[in-house]
Amino acid sequence: MSVEQLKYTKEHEWIRVEGEIATMGITDYAQGELGDVVFVELPGVGTKINQMQPFGTIEAVKTVADLFAPVSGEVIEINALIESSPAIVNSDPYGQGWFIKIKIADKSELKSLLSYNEYLPLIKG
Amino acid sequence: MSYIPNTDAQRHEMLKAAGVQNFDELFERAVPRKLWDNTEFKMPPPLSELEVSVLLNELSSKNICTSEIISFIGAGVYNHYMPAAVNALLFRSEFYTAYTPYQAEVAQGTLQSIFEYQTMVSEILGMEVSNASMYDGATACAEAALIASAHTGRNKILVPRTLHPNYAAVTSTYLSGLPIAVDTLPASDGLIDIESAMKMIDDKTAAVLIQQPNFLGLLEDVEPIIESAHKAGALAVMVVDPITLGVLKSPGEYGADIAVAEGQPFGIPQAFGGPLLGMMAVNKNLVRRLPGRLVGKTIDSRGNEGFCLTLQTREQHIRRNKATSNICTNQALCALAATIYLSLLGPGGLKHLGELALENSHYAYDKAVNIKGFSSKFDSPFFREFVVETSVKPSKLIEKALLKGILPGVDLSVFDIGLDNCLMLAFTEMTGKTQIDKLVQVLSGL
């Protein structure tokens, strides 16, 4: 799936929706702004998260930022690779650097997310 | 730099700008009349340096110092021998006048001393990472509860009735503004009631606190509590007396997730109960929740060894209101005292010290419980402190014994724990057979 087909939040996160499941990560722009990612704190599998509420943190050398849930639902998988090699968030933000998979609670929430063309202006200028 | 912030000329200039003649007029115009307190202060006349010195000596001679009497006071703060080298090094002005520079890495010596402290503390507590120290054991205990709540996302802390009452009170105060409940684990016969504990530990429990030896000097059955905490997904926080750790199992060996201790026995005087030293150590999985400072060893761009603050910016400079804790400092001078003390003692010395405290307390126990009017309060094994029930009010006993140069212990009625006719006696290497025999003689004669 190309970046054009993903959905985005104003907090520079992307999700890829496949049926009931959304895979979530941060955008290439976000990883560039953060710099070298050294740690990502993710919730445990089974945690219920709510749209646009913080559910974890991402720590770079000079900063720490909250991660916001793009959609409400239940965390069904976390990317174990991130714990051992957080740098994959920088090197492959749309691929190996994904964070969590969410079982979407309410698909209507997806309407509030941005398309690629809506997201682009946020990172220009 | 002069500590007088402004000159007469500058003051005059300021008064002129304010449009008043003098400071009295300034206050008269600035503070409404009804707020004035016209009490006349009865200040003594000024004294010369000599007179001040005489006066202060007179006042301080009213204190009773442990060097003048035999003291069995403990309950969290103990009378240990302080090797002369501790203060000789500690009172070098490089150490005691220095405030950590805001660019902490400028003070490599300070950071190295903290790094050595952390290394010793992690070894003694048997944990992977120690922070640079906290104010005292009680606040370290409260901070441990915060870590547990943040880590587990749960909001119930179980505090046993056998935890030092001051620690329990400080923990409640620390947590009072937060949506965290503090529940008390009941005690029976001076120990945590295991059955009740098993029932109270549930999937809402963030942490169970356990003090070993507990406030009353008794040894808790730690394993089943830690096991049941872990089974419920809660953390186990152990509060320990570090002097015992050459003999007893360390929190790490017990499987605790967070270990805290009062470091005062390590080269810090009792001094009216402070300043103290909070020790705190965790395992690596909790390192990002560790409050306060953490010093790391690293290599600079030229390959030289150096020391730096680690993970600090995250907590205090960035996380701010979302940080585990807002402690931004450490108890550097007391931590240094402990570091010097421990380097003089070594592992063998620590073990020996623990054995002496253990032996002395048991020698005293056997004698004390046979004194008329005194009886053993609890039957469980104890380490260096024990409680006796007395037929005479403990406060009266203390008053009388003091006249004979003995401070026999702590009157437990000062704590609200239902032990009103009880006296608690503490033992160290300072209270050997000679001192104990004198204690027994004095208590027998009252």
Descriptive account of the structure:
The complex is a heterodimer of chains A (125) and B (446). Chain A is of the alpha+beta class. Chain A has a single domain (3-118), classed as OB fold (Dihydrolipoamide Acetyltransferase, E2P) (Beta Barrel). Chain A is built from 4 helices and 9 strands. Chain A has helices at residues 28-34, 81-84, 88-91, 116-119; strands spanning 7-8, 13-18, 21-26, 37-41, 48-49, 54-60, 64-68, 73-78, 100-104. In chain A, β6 and β7 form a beta hairpin. The termini of chain A are far apart. The model of chain A has no long low-confidence stretch (mean pLDDT 92). Chain B has 446 residues and is α/β, with parallel strands linked by helices. Chain B has 2 domains: 70-83 and 347-444, Aspartate Aminotransferase, domain 1 (Alpha-Beta Complex), CATH 3.90.1150; 87-339, Type I PLP-dependent aspartate aminotransferase-like (Major domain) (Aspartate Aminotransferase, domain 2, 3-Layer(aba) Sandwich). Chain B is 39% helix and 16% strand. Chain B has 15 helices and 17 strands. Chain B has a 7-stranded mixed β-sheet with strand order 2-10-9-8-7-3-4, sandwiched between helices. In chain B, strands 13-14-17-16 form a 4-stranded antiparallel β-sheet, with helices on one face. In chain B, β3, α8 and β4 form a beta-alpha-beta unit. In chain B, α4 (84-90) packs antiparallel against α13. The mean pLDDT of chain B is 93. The interface between A and B is small, with 7 and 6 residues.
